[in-house]
Specification:
globular, mainly alpha
Length: about 170
C-alpha cells in the first residue's frame, strides 16, 4: 500500500503516541517537553556568560540565532496554519493543552536545535548529548499529541539553519 507524505506523517504520529502510551512515557514526555521551554535557554546563556571563558561566544550565538529563528517561526506558523493533531484528528485526545492552535513548525524543537547547534559550535564534545536531548524534546511533542513528525523535522531544520546563518554572518 502506497502512502503519501500526509498519510505517513499521521501513521508515524499515531505510532509514536501509541508507543508512548503503551510504555507509560507520557509523564516523562511532559517533563522532557518542559526542558524545551525558552526561559531555560536564557538561564543557561546568562550563566555561561558570567562563569565560562566561552560564555560570550555562546551567549552571542544563542541570542543572534533566536533573533533569526523566532520571527521565522512565527511567520511560518501563522502563514501555514496547520492545525495541531490534538485539534485536527477526530476522536483523538492528547491530555495536554498546547499554548496555541497551530503546529508547523514545532517551536520547542526549533529552540532545542538552536541550543544543540550552538553547543556543537562552542562545546563540541557535548554535541552528542545536546542533539540527543533536542531529539527527545521533539519526540516528546509528538508523544504528547501536539505535533506531527514533519512539524518536528521542520522545527529542527529551522533551529539548525538559524544557527548556521548567524554563525556565518557573525563570525
Amino acid at each position: 500500500m502506497k502512502m503519501n507524505i500526509s498519510q505517513l506523517d499521521k501513521y508515524w504520529f499515531y505510532w509514536i503516541v501509541q508507543f508512548s502510551r503503551d510504555n507509560g512515557l507520557n509523564q516523562a514526555a511532559k517533563r522532557v517537553s518542559a526542558t524545551g521551554d525558552g526561559h531555560y535557554y536564557v538561564y543557561l546563556s546568562v550563566a555561561l556568560l558570567f562563569f565560562h571563558p566561552n560564555g560570550q561566544y555562546f551567549f552571542n550565538l544563542v541570542l543572534g540565532s533566536f533573533v533569526v529563528e523566532f520571527p521565522l517561526y512565527l511567520l511560518l506558523k501563522n502563514s501555514i496554519r496547520r492545525h495541531r493533531p490534538c485539534h485536527a484528528l477526530v476522536g483523538f485526545e492528547s491530555g495536554f493543552e498546547p499554548s496555541d492552535k497551530f503546529s508547523l513548525p514545532s517551536g520547542h524543537t526549533a529552540g532545542a536545535f538552536v541550543l544543540a547547534s550552538v553547543v556543537e559550535l562552542v562545546f563540541p564534545a557535548l554535541a552528542p548529548i545536546a542533539f540527543a536531548w533536542a531529539c527527545f524534546v521533539g519526540s516528546s511533542r509528538i508523544a504528547l499529541g501536539v505535533h506531527y513528525p514533519l512539524d518536528i523535522i521542520a522545527g529542527a531544520g529551522l533551529g539548525m539553519g538559524s544557527v548556521l546563518l548567524v554563525e556565518q554572518l557573525m563570525f
